[in-house]
Amino acid sequence: xxxxxxHVSAGIIISRLLRKKLIMPLFLLGSILPDVSFKILELFFxxxxxxFMAFHSLPSQTAISLVLSQYFEKGExxxxxxxxxxxxxxxxxxxxxxxxxxxxxxxxxxxFSSWHGELGxxxxxxxxxxxxxxxxAALAAESIxxxxxxxxxx
Length: 154
Description:
The protein has helices spanning 4-17, 24-44, 49-53, 58-69, 77-96, 127-153; strands spanning 98-99, 122-123. It is an all-alpha fold. Helix 4 (58-69) runs antiparallel to helix 5 (77-96). The chain has a two-stranded parallel sheet. It has six helices and two strands; from the N terminus they run H-H-H-H-H-E-E-H. The longest helix has 27 residues, at 127-153. It has one domain.
């Protein structure tokens, strides 16, 4: 299921449910970070596919979130890291729930472990059915959030 639209939609829903606990742009960036970091390198080195599978793992996303958070001001680094990492973790949890029909799994703890399990709740091709639902739910969550904010200000 998870494609970038679905990951961003899930990020919007989660960030709006948690309200002020998350910084939405950083959380959304984190929610697409595993795919973006993986695919950018794969564009330049297509024959080195397995090596970049490591970018779709929890240790690598921890490191990438940590590196990216260093570009923020001193007082904001911790919050930036937590939001990026929370978004990336959400992404990985969605991917963990799917079933790869090609037999190619993600190695969740690479380089520390080659374990590659998955829950198999839905197929990797079923995102086409879930994307409109997730997108509509994200629009609804954002609309409710914005409307509730206007009602509070009056």
